[in-house]
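Is this the right way to post structure tokens for a design question? Let me know if I should format differently. Anyway, here goes:
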């Protein structure tokens, strides 16, 4: 199967080389990898240039955007700029972060999943991060049927059906909800252990803490589902403040009449899907 990779990169000199090396070691290599250098002020561009010179599967795209590292909008804006450089001659498309190490058979197994089941729309493995003892441990997902945005693969038909990726916080949740709305399945593989070199959220600024609640509002979760999801998140993270930040962000978005990411019909489906999941876990 043919696939393309897009890597948004902003000041990734510490990790980018390891990510690009792990792509070169793949048993099933991409047809093309576009590394989008998004306003980097460190040695990121120089590292990209080294790989572009040596390997034709790598391409560089320089863009200028905000230096502020906000989750959602900045990374997806960069991704979409990379997407503009690609044709449609692919079977699946990958959005990859610049701070991960993939197992060598990662995309071979992802391709096998897509080829074996046309109903799979999104596929991926699980993130492992180093603890204080330098051991690689599973970063426990809120939902084991969820693929992290750092290493997400989309079948071409699914990607087109969901209208691409939303440039907002919550993009890597709404994509899966819309995929299911359009009849696609989410596939996760426990054997695909991805090393995540920088723990999630470490580069985000103080403004980002309210965006999760805003995302829940814009995905039309409604008050009760947002309340339950925020309580669960705070419990998982062992951070009481996460609950209050989420709810504050939700009500601020409501007060501002923030635009929704999904239609009313899609929102109805999303709420039914969320309630079904909540009831299943309680019973």
């Amino acid at each position: 199967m043919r696939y393309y990779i897009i890597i948004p990169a902003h000041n990734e000199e510490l990790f980018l080389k390891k990510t690009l090396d792990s792509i070169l070691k793949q048993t099933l290599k991409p047809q093309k990898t576009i590394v989008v250098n998004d306003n980097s002020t460190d040695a990121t561009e120089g590292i990209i240039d080294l790989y572009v010179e040596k390997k034709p599967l790598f391409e560089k795209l320089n863009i200028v955007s905000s230096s502020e590292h906000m989750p959602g909008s900045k990374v997806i804006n960069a991704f979409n700029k990379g997407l503009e450089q690609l044709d449609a001659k692919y079977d699946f498309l990958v959005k990859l972060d610049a701070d991960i190490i993939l197992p060598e058979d990662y995309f071979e197994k992802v391709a096998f999943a897509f080829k074996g089941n046309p109903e799979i729309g999104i596929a991926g493995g699980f993130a492992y991060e180093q603890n204080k003892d330098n051991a690689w441990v599973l970063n426990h997902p809120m939902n084991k049927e969820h693929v992290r945005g750092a290493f997400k693969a989309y079948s071409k038909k699914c990607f087109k059906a969901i209208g691409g990726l939303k440039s907002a916080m919550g993009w890597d949740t709404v994509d899966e909800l819309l995929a299911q709305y359009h009849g696609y399945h989410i596939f996760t593989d426990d054997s695909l252990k991805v090393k995540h070199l920088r723990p999630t959220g470490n580069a985000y600024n103080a403004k980002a803490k309210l965006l999760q609640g805003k995302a829940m509002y814009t995905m039309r979760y409604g008050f009760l589902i947002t309340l339950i999801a925020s309580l669960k998140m705070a419990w998982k993270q062992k951070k009481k403040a996460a609950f209050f930040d989420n709810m504050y962000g939700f009500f601020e978005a409501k007060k501002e009449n923030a635009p929704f990411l999904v239609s009313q019909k899609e929102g109805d489906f999303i709420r039914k899907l969320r309630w079904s999941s909540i009831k299943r876990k309680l019973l």
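Format looks fine. Someone answered above. Worth noting: The first strand starts at residue 3 and ends at 9. The mean pLDDT is 91.
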